[in-house]
Amino acid sequence: MRFSLIIPCYNESANLPLLLERCKKLEIYSDIEIILVDNGSIDDTPKVLKNLLPQYPNCRSIRVEENHGYGFGILSGLKSAKGEILGWTHADMQTDPIDTLIGLQKFKTYGIDIFVKGRRYGRPFSDVLFTVAMSIFESILLIRPMWDINAQPTMFSRKFYESWTSPPDDFSLDLYVYYQARANNLPVYRFPVKFGQRAHGTSNWNINWAAKRKFIRRTINFSLKLKKMM
Predict the structure, then answer these.
(1) Could you tell me where the DSSP H helices lie in 143-230?
(2) Structure pTM?
(3) What's 122's domain CATH number?
(4) Which end of the chain is more exposed for a tag (fewer CB within 10 A), N or C?
(5) Which range of residues forms the domain containing residue 17?
């Protein structure tokens, strides 16, 4: 297996039919697998996956019985993955899983020991402002360029994945992995990805400024832990 794409799904039953149709464009490549992680969903996600997955031979799912966080779902999927190259993206269709084909081209061009990540465009100004502020803070604190940390897809080699120690279970996973890539001096390649509206449902964290403040507090606390590890 060349590439395993992990897509965590928490209460995304309405988005799954569209998501799987988009993943069908990846299925023409026999060396790509898509792992949808039912991350403790309490809606119809298990039922929808059971009904639809037989139509998509290169897609499979695993079930996390209780939601322990965004990062926990991704890590559960990575443990099940078979690919030489690993990665993840979101299920809400704000970024397209087809973007990973551009990422795979980077590995073909530059080799396996690189780190690849999307760079979002088309976002609301307030979200861009928030991202810029967090990027500047992290870059100064960690003394490394850390821009658009939560952009997707995120892609890397199995060797890099196997070097991680105690990765976080929450949204800090994006920061942890990006930081580890910088700390290990992996060449980082970014490419533009269009960031659109959610097809269905609402964000689990980007709801209002109160939710953003909670996210900021968690991120800063984890960033200080990373700083101590330097």
Answers:
(1) 158-161, 172-183, 209-229
(2) 0.92
(3) 3.90.550.10
(4) C
(5) 3-229
